[in-house]
Amino acid sequence: MNQDYIKPDNWSVIEEGFDTERVKSSESLFSIGNGAMGQRANFEENYSGETFQGSYIAGIYYPDKTKVGWWKNGYPKYFAKVLNAPNWIGIDVKINEENLDLNTCTEVRNFRRELNMKEGWYNRSFEAVLKNGTEIAVNVRRFLSLDLDEAGIIKYAITPLNKDAKIVYKPYIDAGVTNEDANWEEKFWEPLEVKKGTNEAFVTAQTFKTHFKVTTFMHNTIFANGEDAHISPSTIDSTTDKVQYTYGTIIAKGQTSSIQKIGGYTVSLNHENTLAAAEKVIKAAVNSGYDALLQNQIEAWAKIWEMSDITIEGDVKAQQGIRFNIFQLNQTYSGKDSRLNIGPKGFTGEKYGGSTYWDTEAYCIPFYMATKDQQVTRNLLTYRFNQLDKAIENAKDNLGFKNGAALYPMVTMNGEECHNEWEITHEEIHRNGAIAFAIYNYYRYTGDYSYIPEKGLEVLIGIARFWHQRASFSKEKNQYVILGVTGPNEYENNINNNFYTNYIAKWCIDFTAEQITKVGTEYPADHKRILEKVSLSANEIQEWKKVADDMYFPTSEELGIYLQQDGFLDKDLVPVKDLDKSQRPINQKWSWDRVLRSPYIKQADVLQCFYFFEDHFSREELKRNFEFYESFTVHESSLSPCVHSIQAAVLDKMDMAYTFYLRTSRLDLDDYNKEVEEGCHITSMAGTWMSIVEGFGGMRVKNDQLHFSPKIPKEWKGYSFKINFRNQILKVAVNHNETTFTVDGDQDLTIVVNGNPIIASKFVQIN
């Protein structure tokens, strides 16, 4: 834990007191989104202190030229920037001729932020003394509509406390923005058109290179004590990329003046005429009105929480943590559009670039499968199918592979590789395995096999071909090996025979061969279509199987463990507990050379294999490998604590499981890795959900049935969650005395609890 200023609360994230040192961290934590767009919690009024300005639109990116010291063949040509979108929230404020700026106010008191996760809005309030002596109270509420997802709304209210006040509001929209992480200090937006109306304005701009067109819009209304003041702008200032209106009003001491600003984006991904679309959005929002839009927001979030909420009794910080994670996941991805995916920072920051990592398949899909309609997960899988040609092109052009072998990118926006670190881009190839596993996981969980003959089998064949060509035969070992890789533990690069990579390569080939046979038997027309399309023969499948059947796995007979890679035991094996805390996090304290030579593990690696393929190993094997590798794991990846929490629960190490749960659930709220100001760790948040449902709840799918082995941390009185399993809603509630299972509907559901099959109907209690 590196910060502790967020107030514990069951349903809200709350900050009290103004501290300039916390501004950027809070901009991340109080971010809002609606699946189509999102923004950091920047102040609407001008702020001259340190800030990280960021608004983002789903699917909009820029191919920033890769910047390296020297070029290597196969290097990605660009690094995909998540673009800082034009600013629509800005409202400059002047009170009695003095600019409102919290960085220059004489005093700021009663400062409070609240992100209300239950209802989906962000509120900021404070009292301030300006340099001219005017004292004011300010309350600002903002939300991004889930129903009208191209629009957001701000209500910005000012009450003068010690004297009458002349208030000037200067709302604006501005496409002249830059990215926090731009390599070349260039702008990414080309202004095209500015249009001004009485109280509304539009700036249309397009991205350089990719030519995404976006119309940013605003509509302003001035109120006095809650009534429309019918004030028109006194001046309208504009440039090629910015429009700013000026509204002046005089308000008596103790009375309240406010501006209501509707804003947002319409994009060429969805509209031929973005300007006309923006005008329609404004009309719809104005016709609905603020109160109705807010009520619709509350109802939309109530519907989301009805299915996805996890309750925890007796531990407010744990409760706040899981709801924060669930809230951010639902803000980031709604599942409506198969062109979109779940970026590692969502709408909270720009770090990492790209919209898709292997995180989606390995961590996010279980959450979306269990809390949404299965079509949401099909959309995520379809996203990869639609980019199969690019994955084949990536393997061919960058690595020299042939015959339709597919290497999915480490990071992508449109299917092209856009990650610019060689040791990750071309060595962290295990991401192919996660994509194949997600196809299996979807079928295992939903029972919907149709995706595989329709789309999934082509993906699996491309991946199997990749593994077949990527492995090489070692005469010394008389087995197939995979050389020069980076496993999930990115603190080891260019190593040989990463256990997890080798294991998932073998599994991918075996699983693909099984599906080819199954599709041939059950879907002969699809089987014929696919094999003809990809020119796959029985002889080629036999060649794959040779690799899978003779894959090498590094082991230590003495320790009874699988080795993370061939040379792991050659390291100076000093456990983390003996590492000076002043040296943590090592990725911020040590040179990369020192990190690579150390035994320290960034995240679950061998244990990631045990997580995916738990049934392939004995409990004793898990225990030996867990106890060995956890002792060297520094958990400096956000993806690490959740896997360890789940496995600690399996091993009845409940204190450890709880500690890891708290870390994954409050990773950002408590800023464990000293980097939250760069944005939240959205994709790993699904791991928090997994820690409870799969860890403490022990939920598994085996032989088409749900299995549970419920456990509860001693710190909790009880917890509950719901899952949608094959279109049946099951609620699980656990306390220290009993577990209850409730099925929503009249159809019974057979489940297995602690190894014993039971029929779950309306209400079943297990003591």
TrEMBL record:
Residue span, Glycoside hydrolase family 65 N-terminal domain: 14-268
UniProt domain Glycoside hydrolase family 65 central catalytic: residue ranges: 323-690
Sequence ranges assigned to domain Glycoside hydrolase family 65 C-terminal in this UniProt record: 699-758
Keywords assigned: Hydrolase
UniProt keyword Nucleotide-binding, yes or no: no
GO molecular function: hydrolase activity
Domain of life: Bacteria
Keyword presence, Hydrolase: yes
Annotated InterPro entries: 6-hairpin_glycosidase_sf, 6hp_glycosidase-like_sf, Gal_mutarotase_sf_dom, GH65_N, Glyco_hydro_65_C, Glyco_hydro_65_M, Glyco_hydro_65_N, Malt_Pase/Glycosyl_Hdrlase
Family in the record: Belongs to the glycosyl hydrolase 65 family.
The name this protein goes by in its record: Glycoside hydrolase family 65 protein
Organism expressing this protein natively: Flavobacterium hungaricum
